[in-house]
Amino acid sequence: MHFQALGAEQSGLYSKLILDYLTEKQELSPFISFWPNEAGFAEQIEVRKKSAVDRKNLVACLRNQYGNLDLGDAVSANLDSLLRDTTFTLTTGQQIHIFLGPMYVYWKIVSTISLAHRLKKQYPDLNFVPVFWMATEDHDFAEVNHVELFNRSFVWEDQQSHAGPVGRLSTEGLPELTDDLASLFSRQEEWKIFENQFRAAYAEESNFAKATRRLVHEFFKDHGLVILDPDDAQLKKDFLPIIKEELLQESSKDAVQVTSEKLGESYGLQVHPREINLFYSGDKGRERIVIEEGMLQTISGVPLGEASAIDTWLEAKVGDISANVVLRPVYQEVILPNLAYIGGPGELMYWLQLKGVFDHFSVPFPILENRKSVFIIGNKVQSVLEKMNLRLDDLFLDEDELRVKALEVSSDGLVSLKDDLDELLELKDRIIGKAASIQASQAKPLAEIFNQSEKIIKKIDKEIFTLQEAGLEKSLEKVLKMKSLIKEKGFTQERNQYIVQYLLQLNSSQIIEKLSAGYQDLGPVILLID
To answer: What does the alpha-carbon distance between residue 74 and residue 184 come to, in Å, rounded to a whole number?
Structure first.
């Protein structure tokens, strides 16, 4: 196994905004705290040293969330270290999925752990704890209830009518779905270990959040990953002052709009704030909170309490109040001694709209670290490409561009009339020019003759190209199939392929070791040759 870097722009994965961010374009400086480089982390550490969080409450809540799980030495040590002001967190997050989700979830976590290792080498006297923030309060069930494997869909059907936080769902139906999934791997005895882990988590844990924690912990406990469930009334008490201000003053909307207007002068926007950027989870599911005639209530009309009497009821209800995309990042930074958020390009786009919100609430804005985008490619793929005189990064070309390049670099060489046609056009200009200088009326008939010849030559050139393409069709089919491993139907490998598909290939310890060692040099896009 080895890594090969690919240029961010060459990959075609990133918008102009993210490409500019990755190159540290100074026009983006007003929208961040510090750049994700050595100097930036040094400054962010100093800022975080001056910004206290309730470490005792954080650790107590985390230990309570882990319940009876065997923490393991690395996680236990990291929880202990969080009580000390020389420890900082690095956080990534994701809505929880069945069977751990798409591959990008894995690369988010691995990127975060690797960054923690890298910073520990730079600052041996400090501690850096990787945190996985389970977005258990999200309510988009349809986004997380399925996996697609080997042209088969596995769908968790039992909870379709549920509109509340997905983390609170019963795991009913998931043990049976595990049985269906296991049938795909029945010939691979090694997969039995993972099958048993899924079945035990889904059968023995009381809800989807706890089951997901158990699974993620099984895979990453030896690397010290700390898993946090934000749907915790005790944690939210530290966020209570901001919740109260948001309900009474609707502060975040104006703060986002000011920042967004400036950013929107050059780039597209992801976030469009509400008047109140909070939800309430009750009998009717997770609903937006609005204010009507002095009464705070859900969008469907379920009353929460009078705004004038907010101190009498808010603390009792805070466990069921959750933040949307605007305030969730603020909640994260309030309860964690966090240095950086590690996210994908879509996440970084909306984070860049939020600096004004953080400034308003006097909460440190984290460094934004683009997660590694990693594409797994087999050695056989590399071998086939080499025989066709193609490179691995050619798989990121558009399909038409890849076809043309495959023909151009084929060992037989591409026969084309293009150069001859260019010579003809030069000759055309000279002849018409000379004829027109003697008698202008001769220019038009000469041009018509040349134009007709040009059409005929182009037609023949296309026919020649088609014949050559047919001769290479089998090889092209192989190459295009390989390309589909990278990107198919507009979705990359990271999004349309799932962690369970690669469990037997993923040696996390080896991957983290190599990624930590070359974290900066490898860049944002990496090919993993296995």
So the answer is: 34
Sheet containing 295-298: give its strands across.
303-306, 295-298, 285-292, 278-282, 321-323
**Alpha carbon distance 366, 368 (integer Å):** 6
Torsion of CA 304, 305, 308, 310, to 10 degrees: -70
Residue with tokens 């070359």: 518
What are the two backbone dihedrals, phi and then psi, of residue 161, each rounded to the nearest 5 degrees? Answer: -85, -5
- Contact between 164 and 281 under an 8 Å Cβ cutoff? The reply is yes
- The DSSP code sequence of 249-283 is H-HHHHHHHHHHHHHTTTS-------SS-EEEEET
- Tell me the percentage of the chain whose pLDDT exceeds 90: 69
The answer to whether 246 and 252 are in contact (CB under 8 A) is yes
pLDDT tens per residue across span 169-225: 999 999 999 999 999 998 899 999 999 999 999 999 999 999 999 999 999 999 999
Residue 347 in tokens:
């996440």
Bridge partners of residue 297, in order along the sequence: 290, 303
Alpha carbon distance 207, 179 (integer Å): 19
Separation of alpha carbons 269 and 346, rounded Å: 10
End-to-end Cα, the chain, rounded Å? 5
Distance (Å, whole) CA 155 – CA 357: 38
Q: Which helix (H) or strand (E) holds 475?
A: helix 473-486
What is the pLDDT at residue 442? Answer: 77
Please tell me the distance from the alpha carbon of residue 112 to that of residue 89, in angstroms, as a whole number: 10
- The three-point CA angle 320-321-327 to 5° equals 150
Q: Residues 243-300: pLDDT tens digits?
A: 999 999 999 999 999 999 999 999 988 889 999 999 999 988 999 999 999 999 999 9
In DSSP terms, 3 is beta-bridged to: 528
- At residue 416 the predicted structure's pLDDT band, cuts being 50, 70 and 90, is low
């008490």: which residue's tokens?
A: 237
AA identity, residue 436: A
Beta-carbon contacts of residue 359 (< 8 Å; ≥ 6 apart) = 255, 365
pLDDT value of residue 346:
93
Using the 8-state DSSP alphabet, how is residue 185 labeled?
Answer: G
| Both tokens assigned to 166 | 């997905």
